[in-house]
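hey so i finally got around to running the thing on that chain from the lab meeting. sorry it took forever, my laptop kept dying and i had to restart like 3 times. anyway pasting the input first so we r on the same page abt which one it is
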Amino acid sequence: MPLRSWYVACCPKAMTKPWFVSLAVTAACTGSDVPPAASSGDATSDRPEAGQNVGRVASRDGTQIAFEKFGRGDALVIVGGALSDRSGAKPLAAALGDHFTVYTYDRRGRGESGDTQPYSVDREIEDLEAVIERAGKRARVYGVSSGAALALQATVKMPSRVVQLAVYEPPYGQEQSAYDRQKANVNRIVEAGQPGDAAEFFLAEIGTPPEAIDDMKRSPEWKRMAKIDFTLAYDYAVLGDGQVPEAVAQITAPTLVMDGEKSMPFIRPSADRIAELIPNSRQRTLAGQTHQAKPEAVAPVLIEFFSSSEPTASR
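ok and heres what got predicted. didnt touch it at all, straight out
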């Protein structure tokens, strides 16, 4: 297969194999001449601009979770993907800010949020619940990639908190033996390795060329990525055995399940299965989009969907 046919649309240095690249391919986009797509949970290091609302909220175990608030209107919380912090959602939040009060937050262990041990998926769900509580007790929720998997599970656990749910490409349904091997290796490296080792392993596993990884390691972004690469183990924990959890059938909130027309082959069947399981769901394939869906492609779809339910409190 010609090398170029493996390229990801977001950046010529990011290459994929048809399994698990969906978790954090944006991590390989350092140096791309294409602007990062916020809906993918892209890892950027922009700091809050003057006038934005920035704060922290305590999760149930006392962990401080950092968040930012944009815009005005009903509450909408964005849950980012792997190797990302809240700054990755800024372009999408800006596009939604005329319609909603958008909350972006650093998931546990990332950015300015704490990381009380031991980690558990239930604690990450409690983190999201704390942000929703701050947002007005109920909110619309949009999750991306591994953040979409977390949002699905959170909606099962706390149905009264989520007014509507939208997810983009939760990375379920990859080839089982490859997923199991990669999950085991990431956990082993995180346990025994040095900062950056897990990110380097992961990027190599998804097919990023050695020279591209070397370039990334020389970039300013690598230090930030290396600092949070241990959270890859958290993302694998969220994904469990890598298959769509049957429990999503318990979700009663109106749900939008999205995928990109040009995404990886395993994504569409998983989106189909999620939409099939959730009773009150609809499905949408975004034309021309990869796993790196552009904010301008996602925002109108979210505005239309999230505007179709009763308002929620926001503060």
